[in-house]
Amino acid sequence: MKFTTLSSLLLLPATAYAQSSSASAAASGSASAAAPSASAAGNSSDYLTTVLGALTGAGLTSLVGAAQGIANTTEGQALLGSLANGNKTVFAPSNQALSNISQDILGNSALLTQILSYHILNNTYTAAGVANAPNHTIARSLLRGGNYTLPGNFSAPLVLTKNSTNATSFEIVQTAANISAGGNATAANLHVYVIDQVLSLPQSLTEALPAVAPQLFGLAGSIPGLADSLASANGITIFAPSDSAIGAIQSSLGQLNSTQVTAVLSNHIINGTVVYSTGLASGNYTSAGGEPFTFISNSTGAFVQSANSTAKIVQSDIILNNGVVHLIDNVLVNTASNPQAAESAYSSATAAAATSTEADTPVTATSQATGPSASASGSGGSSAGFKVAPIAFTNSMMGGIVAVVGAIVGGAFTLF
Q1: Which of the listed CATH numbers 3.90.700.10, 3.30.420.40, 2.30.180.10, 2.70.70.10 matches domain 3-195?
Q2: Residue 404 above 70 pLDDT?
Q3: Residue 364 and residue 314: Cα distance in Å, rounded?
Q4: Three-class SS of residue 322?
Q5: DSSP assigned state of 288
Q6: For burial by CB atoms within 10 Å, which of 178, 217, 260, 331 has the most?
């Protein structure tokens, strides 16, 4: 499909809405003026007829069919009804992309609504407003609730990046492969990009970790209940050491007792708060072991520090349904712990989330934490603790930790 044809077709219904759009906001990647609501431009039925008609004319018949397939459900009506409220960016899968989706998914209206929700962003995003790689822009989608509930009722994000300052297209960062968003057009208050793949929904920790840190996942899976506890936490940030990083400290692990090993694991996690690369340098974060993190970025990359141990972030913003993973090149061997600080930090984080008024405010921050920039460390912010209910080390977990670490170091593990 030629984008010139797409543009001409989709621009037809936009004239009735042109007064409400902001050219400067589109250029910067976020909309400063709200597009008209359905009540301002006619009833919602007229609005949807206009938009779906434009998409049909552009050849996106499968997408229109999917939208019509959810139109008679409560969730689908809520999604479609929200389109007219404010400027939106839509990643529209082509007919070919949707043909690769199974009929079981297309016939599951609840799942299909979630998938379509994840293809729609609050605000208008263009290449000009997306961060240059390796930096990221975190963009909030319309997907929230159910298995995708984040602290403060924030919606699930998409990660955007582009290859150069002058790039006219950008990419959606997904675990399997990035998806290009090139040509674009407008339909009413919607900024539409046709993409050649359907976006994957955020995975759980137990689904995502094997692809990026298989040895760490194997360790977590060997400790009874640990992986499940992490996967069910309401908001979590994990600094996950790579396989080579874990292998490099096997001999050191043999010198630690079970309490110290527990502290090391805890000091790789922020519990109760989801911190994407865009926010690492802007807050004081305490680990689930009660120890402070320090974040530094310079011309060689971005780094996380716990006590005297430092690691480089080699892959940031691996999106989970309940948080985020940042892959690091070294194990943070910090054996200190402060349970009181951990519990206090987690309590502060959950209290802040419960009173958050930002759930419906689109996030258009641009990361400086994963690429060259001045050195920075955080101030202000939130954190988490293992001692509280969402994640707690049980006796069986502790026994598993002892056994697993002992196996790693070939039986050299000793208890002090």
Answers
A1: 2.30.180.10
A2: no
A3: 23
A4: coil
A5: T
A6: 331
For the chain, which residues make up each domain, given as ranges?
3-195, 205-408
pLDDT, average across residues 71-100: 93
Task: Report the distance separating Cα 282 and Cα 363, nearest Å.
Answer: 15
The pLDDT value recorded for residue 223 is 64
Q: Quick check: pTM over 0.85? A: no
Q: Which amino acid, one-letter code, is at 60? A: L
Q: Encoding tokens for residue 266?
A: 């805890």
Q: How far is CA 327 from CA 181, 238, 267, in A?
A: 25, 8, 14
Give yes or no for a contact between 267 and 287, defined as CB atoms under 8 angstroms apart: yes
Q: What is the pLDDT of residue 61?
A: 95
Q: How far apart are CA 289 and CA 341, in angstroms?
A: 8
Q: What is the pLDDT of residues 226-238, one digit of tens each?
A: 777 888 888 999 9
Q: Tokens representing 402? A: 């002892």
The dihedrals phi and psi of 413, each to the nearest 5 degrees, come to: -70, 130
Phi first, then psi: what are they for 218, rounded to 5°?
-60, -40
Contact predicate 177/23, CB 8 Å: no
Same fold, 3-195 and 205-408: yes
Residue 160 has pLDDT above 50, yes or no: yes
Q: List strand residue ranges (DSSP E) for 117-206, in order.
A: 120-122, 137-140, 157-161, 170-173, 179-181, 184-187, 190-195
Higher pLDDT residue, 58 or 132? 132
Q: Which residue in 360, 369, 389 sits closest to 328, CA to CA? A: 369
Side by side, the strands of the sheet bearing 309-320 are: 269-271, 236-241, 323-328, 309-320, 301-306, 293-298
